[in-house]
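We treat protein structure as text, and this decision shapes the records that our systems exchange. We quote a single record here, exactly as it is kept in our systems:
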Amino acid sequence: MNIDSTKLKVKIVLHKLLGYDIAELMHIHGDYNNLHIDFKEVVGTRQESTAAFLYHVLGRKYAKSSKNESFDFYIYTGDKSDVAENFRIALKLDKIFAYSTKEDYPNVIPVPDFIYTSWKESGINSWEETIEKCIEAGAQPYEDSHLFWIGNTNTHYTRKTLVEISEQHRDIIQAEGMQWLDVKKGEKQKASKFVSLYDHAKYKYLIDIQGNGYSGRLKLLFYLGRPVFVAERSHRELFTDYLKDMENCVIVKEDLSDLVEKVNMLNADSGLYNKIVLGGKKLTDTVLSKEYAINYMADVIEKYGKIQ
């Protein structure tokens, strides 16, 4: 397979018309033996990581095929499925792939994100290494009984709400705001305050809240062996339908109005706590695993990305 990573061939008028960055689009096209993955170079490594994941998926699916399959599909690599839908309409595409979708966008197909390869700017040099370290950290007893979160509070109003709730309930919640300071391609970003993913396992509970769009962090938290609180959101990832409240996670309202109540509920019921931890482990063994992501992506490409 010959992958040629070049600048995305989309008319600049599209950029001006929509007001969105065409660097968030990838175009995969051509025969398997002469495949082109076109994207525009940007500061981060999302596109390169996504291309590497696609290379792995396509190689495993079609390398031994006697037929030289042909492909033509787009992947939107930004955070917001609304933008993916706008690109789909502007480019007159039947389907477009994206890291998340919404119920109103049946033609935006959720696919695995770049983190299944790496997210170097956040210190994730490889999926495999990160998952191994997360599992190792999660195997240790928690050291702090708080629910913990840290992140940029400027990307969604509920993040500031969480910090405010934390200030009112310091006995059970520790939420901290931070800011990213700079970004260099392929290097870990500097931050005003930083807690490694593995150090999240020191806490009894973890929570994930949406930011600008979907949350790449959510699936990783489950590997830390703690109950994961999930704030409701409109962004739907490939595994969203498998998240079940009080079975494998704790789902709270988007405005977090029931968060304190549910933390107290788990604090009072160790059996429920353990049940949710085990349920989360089942997710990591199935729909959150890289193996599942690879097979899922292969099926999506087979259904929507091949030229029949």
Summary: Residues 6-13 have pLDDT under 50 and may be disordered. The longest strand covers residues 144-152. The chain has two domains: 12-120+291-305, 123-289.
